[in-house]
Write a structure and sequence with these properties.
This protein has 13 helices and 9 strands. Helix 1 crosses helix 2 and helix 10 crosses helix 11. The longest helix has 10 residues.
């Protein structure tokens, strides 16, 4: 039997540091959760409240703070390439690791890098991901949460129609996996995966050369789909 992975927990200080806020502000958002939908606490450690890190990250990703909605990026050549820290600052985030967090915790939410440089040595390789300014500007114009705050309802793009009887060894991405598993959006699939609700997909079958995106075979996705619903969804 596959064990269920416990979600990563974070306190107000850690969340505040990631989001460029104060712990008091995080507490205030939690106290106003009836109006803003901020996640419930997942556990207590003494008097410290702990939240599911993935859920809180997703909440902030879909609710840009006022300073981001009012942020005007500096003038740059649309073809300039920015690394993750530079992209975070260009988009108005105080936390230089914000783009890295999006890419790591929410596949499909942030655009793939335009360039991936293979650096380091054979013994210690690493990748540097780079985004063009125009890619970042396009994302700013359509990122989740903008329509809600502007008073217009934003409709998530429909998932593709993915056949279940295709090649069982074909590698599929998060969007296709979300469709096969019956999720309404790739974000809900990514959130469920990060919470450990899809144990058969925790280890991908492959990573793309560009961006290191996770891929799974159709066979494994369908095996996960066949599991009792209680193990697929929380």
């Amino acid at each position: 039997m596959t064990s269920r992975r416990e979600p990563r927990l974070a306190d107000a200080a850690e969340i505040a540091a990631e989001q460029g806020l104060t712990p008091a502000r995080i507490s205030g958002l939690y106290n106003d959760r009836a109006e803003n939908g901020f996640p419930e606490i997942a556990d207590m450690r003494g008097r410290a409240r702990l939240w599911d890190h993935a859920k809180v990250t997703e909440w902030f990703a879909n609710r840009p703070p006022a300073r981001l909605r009012e942020h005007t990026p500096p003038a740059r050549d649309p073809q300039d390439l920015l690394n993750a820290a530079e992209a975070s600052r260009f988009l108005g985030y105080k936390n230089p690791n914000q783009v890295t967090t999006f890419v790591r915790d929410h596949p499909g939410y942030f655009p793939d890098p335009d360039v991936v440089e293979e650096l380091g040595t054979a013994e210690n390789p690493y990748r540097r991901q780079l985004w063009r300014v125009q890619t970042l500007l396009d994302w700013m114009a359509t990122r989740p949460g903008r329509g809600k705050h502007a008073g217009a309802k934003r409709t998530a793009p429909a998932l593709p129609d993915v056949p279940v009887d295709g090649d069982p060894d074909e590698l599929l991405g998060a969007t296709q996996a979300a469709a096969l598993l019956g999720f309404k959006s790739v974000n809900s699939f990514s959130s469920s995966l990060s919470q450990g609700n899809l144990p058969l997909l925790e280890t991908p079958d492959a990573l793309t050369e560009k961006g290191g995106r996770r891929r799974w075979t159709r066979r494994r996705i369908l095996e996960q789909a066949a599991q009792p619903r209680g193990r697929n969804r929380r």
